[in-house]
Amino acid sequence: MSHEAPEPLTAAEWKVMKIVWRRKSCAARDVYEEAGVEHGWAPSTTKTLLRRLIDKGHLTATAVGTSYLYRPSRPAWKSLAGAADSLLDKTLEGLDGKLLAYMVQRSRLTSDDLAQLRSLLEQHPAGGDAASKVESAATSETGPEEAP
């Protein structure tokens, strides 16, 4: 298997991956049924998406009788990190901090998550000042300040 990151996911592929990540391992029928209920998709639509996800390297499929068992090729956090990297690469220079503050504000972070984030920010070259700015933006009701 290649060490390169898989191709980016489309919005529909993220929906299928969420089903598979939630279940950790599932039969094709399980994915068809859940995608049908959640998104109104026909089994053929879901089958096409599963094939694309295998081709892109996000899923593995193991034949079990007349069906397949699907498993994620990598943990959800790695795919999310790849999507975040892609987004940061596309944003304007200098807005990374504002984007991070917005993401922290929108996230459902636990106190443990915040402690880990605080620790990472303390280790950042900007030091504790960065930690207090992100924490302030994350708890603000108005959100991060507007970009220039």
Automatic annotation (TrEMBL):
Domain of life where this protein originates: Bacteria
Record keyword Ubl conjugation present: no
Keywords, sorted A to Z: DNA-binding, Transcription, Transcription regulation
InterPro entries: BlaI_family, WH-like_DNA-bd_sf, WH_DNA-bd_sf
Pfam families associated with the record: Penicillinase_R (PF03965)
GO biological process, any: negative regulation of DNA-templated transcription
Disordered, as annotated region: 125-148
GO MF entries: DNA binding
Family: Belongs to the BlaI transcriptional regulatory family.
Name of the protein described by the UniProt record: Methicillin resistance regulatory protein MecI
Organism from which the protein derives: Paludisphaera borealis
